[in-house]
Specification:
Structural class: alpha+beta
Radius of gyration: 38 Å
Helix content: 25-40%
Number of domains: 2
Order of helices and strands: HHHHHEEHEHEEHEEEEHEHH
CATH architecture of the largest domain: 2-Layer Sandwich
Bound molecules: phenylalanine
Distance between the termini: 79 Å
CATH topology of the largest domain: BirA Bifunctional Protein, domain 2
CATH superfamily of the largest domain: Bira Bifunctional Protein, Domain 2
Largest sheet: 8 strands, mixed
Strand content: 15-25%
Oligomer: single chain
Length: about 350
C-alpha cells in the first residue's frame, strides 16, 4: 500500500467514529497543519521523479479533497447536533406560573433631592457635591467660624481624629468653600448631601440631609435671595401662594443672617402649606460674609451674594406627611414600600433629573 493510501484509510476510519468538535479539529491539524501528514506529502512532490510526479500529485490532491470534505461535513454535523441539544434543554414551559417581579422603590429623601435639584436647575443653578469627611478648614475656619464657636463643640461635631483636623461635615456649607476655591466667580450652585451632628430625637437624626445654595455675582442682593426662596418653596410644595417670614438670626458665615419660616395650618389632620397662622422653620440663609469671600480669594469689593442651607428631610416630611424622621433611616422594607416612589411613576413636579 502506498503511503497516501495508508494515510487515507487510517483517517477515514478515524473520522467515521464518534467525535466531538475538538477531536475533529485535532485530526484536521494532524493532516493539514504546518507539520501535518498531507502537508508533508505536498512538500515531497519536488523530490519525486518527473515521470511519477503527475500521478502522485493527482492522487494526493484527490485524497486531500476527500479528507477535507469529510472534515467540513463532520464539523457541520457536530454543530447542528449541538444546537439541537441546546434547543431541547432550553425549551420554555409556557404553562409554568410567572415569577413575581420585585421592583425597588425610590427613597423619599432621594426623591426630594431630585425634585429640589430640578427646581433650582430651572433657574440656572448647577449641582455641586462635596465629601462627607471634611477638614476643619472647609467646615469651620474658612466659613469665618472662630475656634471658640459652640458649633465646633465635641457635643455637636463628630471628630475623626484627636487633633480635630478631620470630621464629618456638620453642614453642606463647606461645599461653598470648595466651589469658590476651585473656580472663578460668578457662582450659582446648589449642593445637596449628607450632614452629621450628634443629635437624635423625633425630628433630629445624627445623619441628615441639607441642600446648600450659593449665588455670588457683582450685584446680588437680599431681594434676589427672597425671590429665589419664594420661587423654590412654591414650586416644591406645588402651591400658588405661600407665607414666608425672615427672622433675624446669626451665622458666622453670613451677614446679615436670617432664618426662614413658612406659614401653615392643620386641616383634617393634614398640613396645608401657604395658609394659616402657624410657622415652621425650614432654612437658614444670609448674605455671604466678606471674610468668607476673602478666605477663598474672591474680592468682596467686587463680588457679593447670598447663601442658604435647607433641611431636606424636613421638607420631605412636610410634603409627604411623614412624622418621624428616624423612620427615614431605619431601613424598614415595609416603610419604604409605603412611602417610597415607584421609579416608573414619579410625581408631577419631577422633571427628569437623575441622581
Ligand atoms: N449651614 C447653616 C446650618 O447648617 C445653614 C446656612 C447655610 C445658613 C448658608 C446661612 C447660609 O445651620
Amino acid at each position: 500500500m502506498s503511503d497516501l493510501k495508508k494515510i487515507r484509510d487510517e483517517f477515514l476510519s478515524k473520522l467515521r467514529s464518534k467525535l466531538d468538535l475538538s477531536q475533529v479539529n485535532q485530526l484536521k491539524t494532524e493532516l493539514f497543519g504546518k507539520d501535518g501528514l498531507i502537508t508533508k506529502q505536498f512538500k515531497k512532490i519536488g523530490s519525486i521523479s518527473v515521470s511519477e510526479r503527475k500521478k502522485y500529485a493527482t492522487e494526493l490532491n484527490k485524497i486531500k479533497d476527500e479528507l477535507q470534505n469529510l472534515i467540513i461535513s463532520k464539523i457541520g454535523e457536530i454543530e447542528i447536533s449541538e444546537v439541537n441539544e441546546k434547543l431541547k434543554k432550553e425549551k420554555i414551559d409556557v404553562s409554568l406560573p410567572e415569577r413575581s417581579i420585585i421592583r425597588g422603590k425610590i427613597h423619599p429623601v432621594s426623591q426630594t433631592i431630585d425634585e429640589i435639584s430640578s427646581i433650582f436647575s430651572e433657574i440656572g443653578f448647577s449641582v455641586e457635591e462635596g465629601p462627607d469627611v471634611e477638614n476643619e478648614f472647609n467646615n469651620f475656619t474658612a466659613l469665618n467660624t472662630p475656634d471658640h464657636h459652640p458649633a465646633r463643640d465635641m457635643h455637636d461635631t463628630f471628630y475623626l481624629d484627636e487633633k480635630k483636623q478631620k470630621l464629618l461635615r456638620t453642614h453642606t456649607s463647606p461645599v461653598q468653600i470648595r466651589t469658590m476655591i476651585n473656580n472663578k466667580p460668578p457662582f450659582k450652585i446648589i449642593a445637596p448631601g449628607r450632614t452629621y451632628r450628634s443629635d437624635s430625637d423625633q425630628t433630629h437624626a445624627p445623619m441628615f440631609h441639607q441642600v446648600e445654595g450659593l449665588h455670588i455675582d457683582k450685584e446680588i442682593n437680599m431681594g434676589h435671595l427672597k425671590g429665589c426662596l419664594n420661587y423654590f418653596i412654591k414650586e416644591f410644595f406645588e402651591v400658588d401662594k405661600i407665607k414666608m417670614r425672615f427672622r433675624p438670626s446669626h451665622f458666622p458665615f453670613t451677614e446679615p443672617s436670617a432664618e426662614v419660616d413658612i406659614g401653615y395650618k392643620i386641616k383634617d389632620g393634614k398640613i396645608v402649606i401657604g395658609e394659616g397662622d402657624q410657622w415652621l422653620e425650614i432654612l437658614g440663609c444670609g448674605m455671604v460674609h466678606p471674610n468668607v469671600l476673602k478666605n477663598v480669594r474672591v474680592d468682596p469689593a467686587k463680588y457679593q451674594g447670598y447663601a442658604f442651607g435647607i433641611g431636606i428631610d424636613r421638607l420631605a416630611m412636610l410634603k409627604y406627611g411623614i412624622n418621624d424622621l428616624r423612620a427615614f433611616f431605619d431601613c424598614d422594607y415595609r416603610w419604604l414600600n409605603h412611602f417610597g416612589f415607584d421609579p416608573l411613576d414619579v410625581p408631577t413636579n419631577y422633571r427628569g433629573l437623575s441622581r
